[in-house]
Design a protein that fits this description.
Layout lengths: L1 H23 L2 H10 L20 H22 L7 H66 L9 H8 L3
Helix pairs in contact: 1-4, 3-4
């Protein structure tokens, strides 16, 4: 179980690395695209699609599965030890897929943060200004209430509560 967990975590990092690498350049994908398709069907020069970058889930799964299948076949011929089991193969594929989607999430969120950073600064500054205005309003209202309370003088002509109760005969 420990080896599978290590392989799973390493494959997540590998998936993020593949996604990051293909987001910056897709030369290998372009090469295979030129080999497989006629001139009319080849991808456009400004197309950034790669094996995992900007691909649907099924296509990513096929490309990653094929990549690890080739890797396991090579490993079986080079190393006679039975390291490449089905469970490790499955954890490598799932981890790499998870890594590509994790990298996609990180890249998209960083793009959104970069785009919205100016508006977020303005929003925070507006909120701080509104908070300062609210605190100043509270201070002035408190000061006005204190002034109003000090202006009220006790009424001299009225009887106290004790005297009123005596008058009614309750005390």
């Amino acid at each position: 179980m420990t080896l599978e967990l290590i392989v799973f975590i390493a494959s997540i990092l590998f998936g993020a690395l593949i996604y990051w690498r293909e987001s910056h350049g897709n030369g290998l994908y372009r090469f295979f695209n030129k080999l497989m398709y006629s001139k009319e069907l080849q991808m456009k020069p400004n197309d950034k699609t790669g094996f995992v970058y900007q691909q649907k889930f099924i296509i990513r799964l096929v490309f990653i599965g094929f990549l690890f299948l080739i890797g396991i076949v090579i490993t079986r011929f080079l190393i006679p030890i039975d390291l490449a089991t089905i469970s490790i193969f499955a954890s490598m594929i799932v981890g790499t897929l998870a890594g590509t989607y994790l990298a996609n999430f990180i890249f998209k969120s960083s793009e959104v943060i970069d785009e919205k950073s100016d508006s977020i600064e303005d929003l925070v500054q507006d909120t701080i200004d509104k908070g300062k205005d609210f605190i100043e309003d509270l201070k002035t209202k408190d000061a006005e209430e204190v002034v109003e309370n000090t202006k009220e003088t006790p009424k001299v002509g009225e009887k106290s509560a004790r005297e009123r109760l005596k008058d009614k005969g309750l005390l």
